Amino acid sequence: MRVGVIFFVLIAIISAIAFGRAGIDNTPPPQLTTLFELKESFKYEVRYGFMKLGEVHILQSDTTINGTTYRHLNTVIQSNSSIPLVGHREYHYQSILSYNEHTVYSTYFWVDKVHRDVFPYNSYTFDYENNLVYSFFSDGEIRDTLELVGPADGGPALFHLGRSIAGSDNDFMYPVYIDNEKSLVEVRSTTETTRKRSPFFDNNRIDVYKSYGQANLTGPFGFSGSFDSFYDTSELRLPIEASVSVWVGRVRLKLIEYEKH
Q: How far is 105 from 126, CA to CA, in rounded Å?
């Protein structure tokens, strides 16, 4: 399923000191070490014009496997059940992540199709010693073996990578394995700033950094693959909004809840 990947690339796209702050905070973007030490949760509302399409929840926790601690990132995508011909849809995109000095990578990625009670719907194991990705059907039978090109994931790793360069002149290209094939996601961050009205900040306008991106895939609701993302200027570079072109107009994700546990 490609339904969830576009959300990761969008948001790849608030700390306590952010509240009530005016002006640009010129602090550098957070290091991956800092992001992996945080325990955060995010909630986004997804809209097309005045129509609410659904919500995205991002939950993070630590997990220990064979004595090694990893980051478990769970992205929950829920549709608006009142939309005609759509009804309730719920997917959980989950990654077991680690990182080094330069990047984030996954050891295991899976998708739960919750509204159909399929756990998992499909899954991927990343074998970095042999440069292979193994994909599996829901019954655990191996589906295919793909070539692994560098550090990779099924999508959630982009959430950390986008924040780690936001507000700087930088870029990266990252392989994402989904739908039993490899897609490439390109993200370009800038020092360009603008002001955005944010529901998380009581609908006040705040200063944000802007990033651009392109994913060679087709997402839900007619997503074209090109997107813009906006991060607050605090030291944590919270992703507060993202937008992507569709057939007519743009679909937008906006941060509505954030907690640091």
A: 9
Nearest residue to 187 (alpha-carbon basis) of 242, 249, 246:
242
Q: How far apart are CA 69 and CA 60, in angstroms?
A: 13
> Under the phi-then-psi rule, with left for phi > 0, alpha for psi from -120 to 50, and beta for the rest, what region is 32?
alpha
What are phi and psi for residue 86, nearest 5 degrees?
-110, -55
- How much is the pLDDT for 164? 95
User: Beta partners for 206?
Assistant: 196
Residues 58/75, Cβ–Cβ less than 8 Å:
yes
Q: Which helix (H) or strand (E) holds 84?
A: none
CB-count burial class (<10 Å; 0-12, 13-18, 19+) for 97: buried
**The model's pTM:** 0.86
Using one digit for the tens of pLDDT, what is the confidence trace for 61-105? 999 999 999 999 999 999 999 988 788 999 999 999 999 988 999
R_g of the chain, CA atoms, integer Å: 18
In 3D space, the residue among 261, 31, 40, 10 whose CA is nearest the CA of residue 156 turns out to be 10
86 class by beta-carbon count within 10 Å (0-12 exposed, 13-18 middle, 19+ buried): middle
Is residue 226 packed enough to be buried (19+ CB in 10 Å), middle (13-18) or exposed (0-12)? middle
Residue with tokens 């000095």: 101
Give the domain ranges of the chain.
5-260
DSSP character at residue 201: G
Q: For residue 35, which of 19, 15, 54 has the smallest C-alpha distance?
A: 15
Compute how many other C-beta atoms are within 10 angstroms of the C-beta atom of residue 233: 20
